[in-house]
Amino acid sequence: MLIVTKQVEAALFAHARRELPNEACGYLGGKEGRVSVALPLRNLDASPEHFSMDPKEQFEAVRSLRAQGFQALGVYHSHPDSPARLSDEDLRLLRQPGLAYVVVSLKDGRETMAAFETRDGAALPLELILAD
Q1: How far is CA 87 from CA 14, 93, 120, in A?
Q2: What is this structure's pTM?
């Protein structure tokens, strides 16, 4: 289960819209499965079909989260033109245990979001709860 505040949800969709036509990406932080902050990062690939993050920015994001008393709970990225699911490429690349992977979709002008964990190369859906 992953709890996301409505403020974070709004920030994820806003970031995804700003980065169109490319994918947006970043880190999610919080405590005890409750996401309280999103840290947008640059998509080095500047692509509508995939993303990669700068390791230095990733390190700084995790350090910033810790300084705020949070832990890294997940990674998010957007799919400008496909559903909120992990692609085959995502499954090959997103394999860090203990992190949630949130996909924000803007397909057909609809904003949808889904969360997953990965295990043995498979995407396992996480219950995603929106909270105040």
Answers
A1: 22, 10, 15
A2: 0.94
With beta carbons less than 8 A apart as the criterion, state whether 90 and 75 touch: no
Strand 112-119 to 100-105 pairing: antiparallel
Domain that holds residue 50: 2-131
DSSP-assigned states of every residue in 49-97? S-----HHHHHHHHHHHHHTT-EEEEEEEEESSS-SS--HHHHHH---T
Q: From 42, 5, 6, select the one nearest 24 (Cα to Cα).
A: 42
**Model confidence at 62: pLDDT above 90:** yes
User: Which positions ≥6 away from 118 have C-beta within 8 Å?
Assistant: 86, 91, 94, 95, 101, 124
**CB-count burial class (<10 Å; 0-12, 13-18, 19+) for 82:** middle
Average pLDDT, the chain: 94
CATH no. for residue 25? 3.40.140.10
Token code pair at residue 98: 């203990």
Distance CA 123, CA 118 (A): 5
